[in-house]
Amino acid sequence: MMLRKPSHRTAAVLAAVAGLTVALAATVRAADDATGNPMQAQIDHGKSTYASKCSHCHGPNLMNSGTITPDLRAIPDDKTRFITTVKNGKNNKMPPWGDILNDEEIGSLWAFISSRRKP
């Protein structure tokens, strides 16, 4: 069996694939924080979602004095309850967000808020 030397075109395609692979790996690493922690990337995404969707009622620091909204730093460590509340609303005071936020965004919100909880 005789092996043929790859053509210039084949070599160019292989080089392009290798370059794209390196670029993709760099992009995945950039999605994590500078230390390579994917949880921190999720917390950061949740922080951004919170700022744009939640802070107007719940306050910029997870609490809004003088309103009916709870101090989110003191919510129970109950992810299922949190997700249900966000999706369905609560007591006709908090509107449902299930049609506005997808599961990934709600999960990122949980990651952010639970990272800021008071023990």
Automatic annotation (TrEMBL):
PROSITE patterns: CYTC. Keywords: Heme, Iron, Metal-binding, Signal. InterPro entries: Cyt_c-like_dom, Cyt_c-like_dom_sf, Cytochrome_c_Oxidase_Subunit. Pfam families: Cytochrome_CBB3. Residues 41-117 form the Cytochrome c domain. Residues 1-25 form the signal peptide. PANTHER family: CBB3-TYPE CYTOCHROME C OXIDASE SUBUNIT FIXP (PTHR33751), CYTOCHROME BC1 COMPLEX CYTOCHROME C SUBUNIT (PTHR33751:SF13). This is Cytochrome c55X. It comes from Bradyrhizobium ottawaense.
